[in-house]
Each structure stands twice: as structure tokens, then as C-alpha cells.
Design brief:
- This protein is of the alpha+beta class and about 210 residues long.
- The chain folds into 2 domains: about 10-100 and about 200-210, Ribosomal Protein S4 Delta 41, Chain A, domain 1 (Orthogonal Bundle), CATH 1.10.1050.10; about 100-185, Structural Genomics Hypothetical 15.5 Kd Protein In mrcA-pckA Intergenic Region, Chain A, CATH 3.10.290.
- It has helices at about 10-15, 30-35, 45, 55-70, 75-85, 90-100, 100-110, 115-125, 155-165, 200-210, and strands spanning about 125-130, 130-135, 145-150, 175-180, 185.
- It has a 5-stranded antiparallel beta sheet with strand order 2-1-3-5-4, with no helix packed on it.
- Strand 4 (about 175-180) and strand 5 form a beta hairpin.
- The longest helix has 16 residues, at about 55-70.
- The relative contact order is 0.14.
Length: about 210
Amino acid sequence: MGHYVGPVCKLCRREGMKLMLKGERCFTSKCALERRNYPPGQHGAMRQRRRISDYGVRLRAKQQARRMYGVMERPFRRLFREAERLPGATGENLLRLLERRLDNVIYRLGLAKSRAQARQLVRHGHIVVKDRKTNIPSFLVRPGDVIKVRPESRKRTYFKDLADELDTQAVPGWLALNAEELSAEILRDPNAEECEQNLQPQMIVEFYSR
């Protein structure tokens, strides 16, 4: 499965917003957007002053969502087509599907500092869903699913240290976290208010509907 392997701070600068790709670093003065708040490249500062076309505005909205959740173009388009088939607003459906990805759920639970780290934990086989080891980051969880860290993995230093930090972790209302057991249950589907609020789902719909 393809994935972006370049410098992620450039993505934040290109989109002009914090995509939270570096975890805690994004909240410090080391954040690239704090130091150089203009697009990357030799003429980035000049490009910032140019007027963006209507197509460009919609493209940026789509790229912001895709890069924030770490999804490549083809799977992102497939998710959009699935969102179209669901009842309700397509844009909100898309964000709900993105939130239900296993790597995003691991990130929301605080088991990882970033979605990229969450994908790594899933790919390396540390996560169990419904008592079955699942190494597919794009796996869509459903209400009633129980997610756990594998018993073998809980012996690792990373997860031993993490158990103490999770006691103060705030999680979305659609998730129930058991910090002591390093497990969680999916209570329901996320609602619109519990999805990323910095994105523009309607612009994404308009981009794919052009």
C-alpha cells in the first residue's frame, strides 16, 4: 500500500494549516508553520500572495482532509463514493468514515501521538479488534467493536509507559477507553461535532462533483 514518505512539515506549510502530523511537536515553537508560515519551495512566499481560483480552493480542501488523515488519493476517492451511497449529507458521511478508520481511532484514544504513529502500531500487529489481530490501518470499526493492545505487545516499554499517561486522556464521546486494560469499545458512530472541525466537507463534495 502506497503512503507518503517525504517531510510532513512541508504538507502543513503547503496547506496553510496544522495537520497535526508530528504529534506534540505541532504544539511547540518547533512547528514549521510557526517558523515559516508560507508554502514550501524557492518562491513559496510569492505564491502565498496569489489569488486562488475556485478550483484551487476546493482542491486545497480535499488535500487538507486527505493529508490530515494520511490517506492516498485512490482510497480517499473510494471513501467518498461510499459516503455518497449513505443516507444524509455526503460531506459529513465522509468525515465519519475517516474517523472510523482504525488508525484514526488509535490516535483518538491516545495510544499514539500522531496518526502516522498509529498506522505503524497497526501495521506492526500490536492491535486486536474483536479478538483478531488486525494490521490494516484503513479497517473501519463499527459500534460494538472492542479494540485492544495485544497481550504480547503490552509487555513492551512503550505500552507500559503509556498506561500511566492514559489516565488523564480525554477521548471522544463515541469511544470508551479502559486505560488499565489498554482497550476500548466503539459505542456508536461519531457525529458531525466529534469529527475534525477545521476541514471543509462541502468543498470536498463540490470538488468531486465538478
